[in-house]
Amino acid sequence: MRRFALLGAAFGLLSGAGAMLAACAHPGGPGFAELPPWLQAHLARVNADARHPSVIAVWEWPYQGRTVYEVQAGCCDRFNELYDAQGTYLCAPTGGYTGRGDGKCPDAVAARAAAGEQVRKLWYHTAPAHPADRASAPDLP
Fold first, then answer.
1. Among 6, 36, 37, 98, whose Cα sits 20 to 30 Å from the Cα of 45?
2. Beta bridge partners of residue 95, listed in sequence order
3. From residue 138, how far is each of 16, 112, 134 by CA, in Å?
């Protein structure tokens, strides 16, 4: 299970973010420049192999009075993680073996649905996805 409890510490050294972005096979893509620097660095790290991305999309929406980023996993029973605007891990509302996330924010799925048109897809991976990725992580509304 990948958790980013130390996300602030890991990405506190934003001077290394440029190097991570340069090493990424596909650091850009639609909406990439709109993402906060901590999220750009995270995507560059986890998507270093463009053929098998760990993250296929990033969504922005309001949750509990703040802006959150939902990081949609690319495949295979991974959690779809939710972060606040500063990069603090909040929970995984969906994904995992059960599809119900990690159970730490049971109201998040309903809150996302209620957000309606406020839910914005900020970024998505543009490299051809593996067929298993498309089957296990359909495009969310």
1. 98
2. 79, 100
3. 33, 16, 6
